[in-house]
Design goal:
80% of the residues lie in helices and 0% in strands. The chain contains 17 helices and no strands. This is Protoheme IX farnesyltransferase.
Length: 308
């Protein structure tokens, strides 16, 4: 797409669309959505009580669609900075394949649909939590925190940490201490995960004017904060066993994964590499860590239900 066409698309939301179905799927941020689906499903499975399998499927799908809606609203609002970042410049809105108006309408319609469906098929507490999650990500994080403070990802991480709480509420109708522990694990995981990315993508954020921690506080401070948060991540990972809703087997696995997380963070802190290989390694391991933690919880939840 030419620069002239790109500027016309960003400045004229009513310009004609060149969108395909794949472009609208991209607006949903499917990789992020997959993590939301997984953690929300784990929350559903761990919660006391049970939904009919069909209703449980619809609830999970509603949470996924809500996450996708938030992603679409994020891409609508962030089209200007997405256009100058290598990681995001190929997205449909800055490329001009989806117009800003289309992305906005798509996100709003899916938001309303997902919240109403979850309320009708599960309960209105879960629906309210989903609505709050979408609002927090699209408005509080995207429109305010992201461009105003280097703590953007710390506070904004609450949106990504809420899906297991929503899933728990969908099954049980309540928010419990256990669901808040699941929230805490993801909330504390988010800063070291994204700051590791920011270390080797700092040029992107600088060009976009996004005040990520490495660009504001510097690499040294960011590495120290990554290490501190990594210790908290390791501690939070074993809390399900400490609080009695996961087994010692899970606790041992979580402890081993936490030690690995801290070790990767220690390399980020102590190894000076201009290519940021330790940061890239931590970023990759952090994805594995979160998946493994919730997979272990899911296995225990399934085993518990089968043995009941």
């Amino acid at each position: 797409m030419s620069v002239v066409h790109e500027e016309r698309v960003l400045n004229d939301p009513a310009s004609l669309s060149e969108a395909t179905a794949g472009d609208f799927v991209t607006l949903l941020k499917p990789r992020v959505m997959s993590l939301v689906i997984f953690t929300a499903f784990v929350g559903q499975m761990l919660a006391p009580g049970a939904l009919h399998p069909f209703l449980a499927f619809v609830a999970t799908l509603s949470i996924a669609v809500g996450a996708g809606a938030a992603g679409a609203l994020n891409m609508w609002y962030d089209a200007d900075i997405d256009a100058v970042m290598s990681r995001t410049s190929k997205r449909p809105v800055p490329q001009g394949r989806v117009t800003p108006n289309e992305a906005l309408a798509f996100g709003l319609v899916l938001s309303a649909f997902s919240v109403m469906t979850l309320g009708l098929m599960a309960n209105w507490l879960a629906a309210a939590l989903l609505a709050f999650t979408i609002f927090f990500y699209a408005v509080i994080y995207t429109m305010w925190l992201k461009r105003s403070t280097p703590q953007n990802i710390v506070i904004g991480g609450a949106a990504g940490a809420l899906p297991p709480v929503v899933g728990w509420a969908a099954t049980s109708g309540v928010v419990s201490v256990e669901s808040l522990v699941l929230f805490l694990i993801i909330f504390l995981w988010t800063p070291p995960h994204f700051w590791a990315l920011a270390l080797f993508k700092s040029g992107d954020y600088e060009r976009a004017g996004v005040p990520m921690m490495p660009n504001v506080a510097g690499e040294a401070s960011t590495k120290k904060q990554i290490f501190a948060y990594s210790i908290l991540v390791a501690i939070s990972g074993v809390l399900p066993t400490v609080l009695g809703f996961a087994s010692l087997f899970y606790g041992a696995a979580a402890a081993a994964l936490g030690i690995g997380f801290v070790w990767y963070a220690w390399r980020v802190l102590t190894v000076d590499d201009p290519k940021m290989k330790p940061a890239k390694a931590l970023f990759g391991f952090s994805v594995l860590y979160l998946f493994a933690i919730f997979a272990a919880l899911l296995v225990e939840a399934i085993a518990g239900r089968l043995g009941a």
